[in-house]
Give the backbone structure.
Amino acid sequence: MNQNTPALAQCAQMLNQSDDYQVLRRLQPTQQFNPPNGDDGLHRVCIIDTETTGLNTAECEIIELGYQIIEFDSQGHFYRVLSAKNFLNEPQGEITPEVTKVTGLTLADVKGQHIPWDQVADDIAQSHLCVAHNAGFDRPVLERYHSVFVNKIWGCSVAQIDWERLADVGSRSQEFLCWKIGQFFYGAHRALDDVQALSELLAQPIGEAKLPAFHYLLAKVRQAKSIVQAVGAPFELKDALRARGYRWDAKQRVWKKMMEEEQVQQECLWLNQHGVSQPHCLKLKATDTFSIRAE
């Protein structure tokens, strides 16, 4: 540790007391978020991230996998980090300059490296929940590599936390959220670095109740969900549907949206009022959220 660290910490504290400055700290990965509370009913969450050769979830290859498994209670408080792992993986295809620019990884870095999927599967099997900052991307990719991810419940810190309402932050970029809410920075776009930063972010107290961000994600995970399809929607309704969060499925040629079950009746009423007389609603299993089965 730098011998000037105490002096630097004092300087940072003085600057933060001024409205004219904000000082960010470099993230030091946390191993114990809260002291043991004697609760024998703790659960395990796997915070997970992938770095890939592209953005097409049906084709891209994993070049790095990082995750850590953390104990948590029913209110979303984190406790011990049970394990933290990072693996490189040589793809069959190329690593483009664009991917290297983002991740810093080249083909030479991953040459001869392979993910030990049996070890990963053992770790995931012991976890009650998987969480990624963009589960709609990471889950479909990981399911192509191993079936252990198929029957897991997943959470998404992008889609299932209302950062703007709870923390007054409009962007959902992980780096930006870490800066605004946690006041820290980190080496972004490497798998385990992203995972440890997300874990720290999810432990931050937000909202009027000052509960961990993970508390609000858990509440969303526990809610039943459905996919609503705006079957036969008039062409002129497309902009309004897009504004409400619907996306166009070119294969099925229909606008669709995933939402909590309690919102479905009101949504169908809105669709009826706007020319969609028979919307189709499909209830999702808890293990299908953010998978291709929810498309």
